[in-house]
Amino acid sequence: MAMGKWSFFSGISICVLLNFASVAAAPKGSLITGLPGFNGVFPSNHYSGYVTFDDKNLFYYFIVSERNPSKDPVVLWLNGGPGCSSFDGFVYEHGPFNFEEGKPKGSLPILHLNPYSWSKVSNIIYLDSPCGVGMSYSKNQSKYINDDLQTAADTHNFLLKWFQLYPEFVNNQFYISGESYAGIYVPTLSAEVVKGIQGGQVPVINFKGYLIGNGVSGSQFEGLSALVPFAHGMGLLSDDIFEALSGLNIYDILEPCYHDPASDQHAKGNASSNLPISFQQLGATDRPLKVRKRMFGRAWPLWAFEKDGKFPSWSELALQGSVPCVNDEVATTWLNDESVRKAIHAEPKSIAGPWQICSDRIEYNGYSAGSMLPYHKNLTAQGYRALIYSGDHDLCVPFTGTQAWTRSLGYKIVDEWRSWMSDKHVAGYLQGYDNNLTFLTVKGAGHTVPEYKPRESLDFLSRWLDGKPI
Predict the structure, then answer these.
(1) Mapping DSSP to helix (H, G, I), strand (E, B) and coil, where does residue 149 land?
(2) Structurally, how many domains does the chain consist of?
(3) DSSP state, residue 199
(4) Looking at the domain assignment, is residue 310 inside a domain?
(5) CA-angle at 17, arms to 12 and 20, nearest 5°
(6) Could you read off the pLDDT of 419-459 as tens digits, one per residue?
(7) pLDDT digits (tens, 9 = 90+) for 257-268
(8) Which of 217, 334, 410, 447 suits a disulfide with 372, CB 3.0-4.6 Å?
(9) Does residue 287 lie within any of the structural domains?
(10) Is the model more confident about 302 or about 178?
(11) How far apart are CA 281 and CA 278, in angstroms?
């Protein structure tokens, strides 16, 4: 028996040492050894902490690839808002865990491994940016005043310092990704990274391209010019009636804003909807747990209230009764538990403040960088790869506008409009352009594509990162 125990624990020690050796230069104390709510073994190493500069403390959570850390790309993930935490993506979309609501209500959620985590094929960094978002903070309140160009400069500064902390990844291919208002974050940051490479900044980041999901572009192709044709084409309004939009969840037109999370909406259909059940079931998800970021309240995103480049705070919108359709109870419960914050090396609430899915403490001057079309044109013309994907049931940033602006770049079509497959089924459609630009739709997905279609999202990501046809 003693010999058996020795052999068993020696085996564990060898496995642990081999796994830990993959990030030999990681900052001391950054390794995450366990998480409240999860009873199991991490499939790969997790690290987290702060990168500090200019009185700003930017928080990151880094997951080493479960496939081949030394060869797989490094992917940075940014949620939008502006002002929303990238833990939105971590908890509800493509992070390493699926979160099961705790019982009784309000207790810590239970974590299960996510079979469709993007860490299956990439080393992924979840970054809370700009300063004042999520776990990122400053003791100088003036650092919470921000705009697009300052955010890009700060995130580039973060990357340079991060690769100094994790030098074994500096030669890996690097991609920038995000969704929604990250349609502004990603191109502006990409341009900043390219400028740094061309200017000889070290370390030299091995930047290869970017991907954006349901992202705004700051161009004439979005807003009502995209929303109205989309809504009309989906049969949501007649030629002369626009008022029907008031009761819709714009993040997923198949989901109501008011919904009982305990009910299986897609299994039995929505009795109040005029849509056939087969159409409603387009939004069904492969995610094994029913706890998703359900949509409640009035459905308009923060950018809809932009005035003269300024955005109201989320708390101001709440006072007006115009709260976006987001229920973040699971993430809020978990990330505001002090034992969780300690486990992920985040400062306590007394220092960094409570975690919010979208911060109400930042002042953001939005769309200050102008239209993103020149950015996309410049980046792709230089050979950087771009994947622009859209959930085709998103009314917040409809695919019609994204399809229009990608076409407007004027590139030659090299892969004519066609379906793409996942799990032997049509998962959506794509069109490939010259200069490594691809526009792709995901059938039945809402605004946050991996939340609705996790299997399909991992499929297109892995093929695209590996340079294989989608």
Answers:
(1) helix
(2) 1
(3) T
(4) no
(5) 120
(6) 999 999 999 999 999 999 999 999 999 999 999 999 999 99
(7) 544 444 444 444
(8) 217
(9) no
(10) 178
(11) 5
- Average pLDDT for 406-411: 96
Rounded to whole angstroms, what are the CA distances from 350 to 112, 315, 355? 29, 20, 11
CB-based contact 92:117 (threshold 8 Å): no
Measured CA to CA in angstroms, residue 304 lies from 141, 181, 235, 356, 387 at distances of 26, 11, 23, 20, 25
pLDDT at 247: 54
Is residue 67 helix, strand or coil?
A: coil
114 located within any domain = yes
- The pTM score is 0.83
User: For position 420, which CATH number holds?
Assistant: 3.40.50.1820
Residue type, 294: R
Q: What is the pLDDT, as a whole number, of residue 457?
A: 98
Q: Round to whole Å and give the CA distance between 124 and 72.
A: 10
**CB-based contact 31:62 (threshold 8 Å):** no
380: containing domain? 28-222+367-465
- How many other C-beta atoms can be found within 10 angstroms of the C-beta atom of residue 21? 10
Residue 96 counted as domain residue? yes
Unique residue bearing structure tokens 């008031």 = 246
CA pair distance 44, 36, nearest whole angstrom: 17
Q: 399-408 and 224-233 are packed helices; what angle lies between their axes, rounded to 10 degrees?
A: 120
Which positions are catalytic?
180, 394, 447
CB atoms within 10 A of CB 468: 8
**Residue at token pair 């009982």:** 260
Task: Indicate the helix (H) or strand (E) that contains 442.
Answer: strand 437-442
